[in-house]
Amino acid sequence: MSETLVSPPPEARSSGGVKPGLGLAALTAIVVGSMIGSGIFALPSQMAGSAAPGPLLIGWAITGVGMLTLAFVFQTLASRKPDVDGGVYGYARAGFGNYIGFTSAFGYWVSAWVGNVAYLVLLFSTLGYFFPGFEGGATVPAIIGASIVLWVVHFLTLRGIQTAAAVNVVVTIAKVVPILVFIAIAAVGFRAGLFSADFWGRAVEIDGAPLGDTMTQVKNMMLVTVWVFIGIEGAAVYSQRAAKRRDVGRATVLGFVGVLALLLMVNLLSYGLMTQAELAGVADPSMAGVLENEVGAWGAAFISIGLVVSLLGALIAWVMLCVEILRLPALEHVMPRALARENSHGAPANALWLTNICVQALLLWTLANASTYTNLVYLATSLILLPYLWSAAYQVLLAVRGETYSVGGGRTRDLLIGVVALGYAVWLVYAGGWQYLLVAAMFYLAGTALYLWARRESRLPAFSKPEFVVVAVVALTSVLAAVLMATGNLSVL
């Protein structure tokens, strides 16, 4: 097996007999595939339990603007900083130094592979609809099945990123079809009277409790949306492998707009099929229950199959993102260089093995520690939000300095977009839970060993003076988290 440390640039890969880079369709599929996992299939009941149609529309408008500005951030940075690779990792490193870049990449990686465990468990829990032995997703047969799927995807990815990306395009199309069928049936069966019956949620009660005032409902529904857009950065992470750099930004915006349209239609149309109280009581995946109520038992089976395909697609997309977010830092002396080595098919084999061994270990852990595993998923999801904050802050930094704006306008516009995106990113981190940020510091401190390894093998200084301050803050926060956990005042694991 031949190995190489540094990948050729996209231009070199597009000629001379080397496989071309990823095109617009493949990059868009990575964005859509990583954003659409299980969240959209549970959206009807989760939103119905949080807000009535009026507050829901307000919340979606705020969320849509916030996430659109983040999409524009990734589009703008891909255009203005074409020399910065790796998306959320590269922007954090370019703007705030090697160690912040490391924490962004390491946190993203941990979040991504723990999320893959969640996809596998939910995949076999969904298959339990057809095969009772898999019910719950954490039984011995389910874990065996999940392990088999994991290693099939592993060896598929070892065949090369191009192969995995091509499969992801097909699976992404397949996962969107059931959602479109649901939307079409819901549009035909939509009853405007149900939708507008209690438009502001003043009379409806969920589990015997009122929804609260309009702003309370808006806040509650926005908490649900914190997680449904994760994956918007997918194309930016793969920027180095893009055939055309401008396609990174285009794929980000196209993917976001497409997913937002699907989320809105699934969510809003559901309110016209059942009363809000009934909708809130539908078991997850609630899209299946809603369609079953509309067309019969085949609807639940159809959506369950769609969810299985969706989870498989999300798994493939996130395995690809996992290895890429390790490979690029390893090329830039931020991760151990072994994680950048590629096999003869151009796949980062060492990064892939490390990632999926971790996934396999946590899969086995879920057999005896299902509750702890669930909390780990929440922690991992919080870890992925910080890189969004660094990316938005980097755009603000560029606009304030005027860097890359010597030719052409748009500085004021980009500053405004960056400030809005940064504010929304701060909200996402806050909504994700401050307690998880405390524990995240412990993960960063433990992962710093990889960073020190990388710096030592490259004979580079470990930390700059500002980075010593950052490491000290991480260490002190870790100590605080440990003390709070020991005294029972912090419990997330």
Question: Your description of this structure?
Answer:
This protein has one domain (10-434): Amino acid/polyamine transporter I (Up-down Bundle). It has a two-stranded antiparallel sheet. The two termini are 41 Å apart. 72% of the residues lie in helices and 1% in strands. It is mainly α and 493 residues long. 51% of the residues are buried. It has helices at 10-13, 24-35, 39-48, 53-80, 88-96, 98-127, 140-158, 161-189, 192-196, 214-225, 234-237, 246-270, 276-280, 286-295, 297-331, 349-366, 370-383, 385-401, 411-432, 434-457, 465-486; strands spanning 205-206, 209-210. The protein is built from 21 helices and two strands.
Give the structure's gist in a few sentences.
This protein is mainly α and 493 residues long. 72% of the residues lie in helices and 1% in strands. A two-stranded antiparallel ribbon has the order 1-2.
**Distance separating the two termini:** 41 Å
CATH superfamily heading: Amino acid/polyamine transporter I
What's the tally of helices? 21
Task: Identify the overall geometry.
Answer: globular
Largest sheet: 2 strands, antiparallel
Text of the CATH class? Mainly Alpha
DSSP, total strands: 2
Give the uncertain stretches in residue-range form.
1-19
Overall domain count: 1
Just name the CATH architecture.
Up-down Bundle
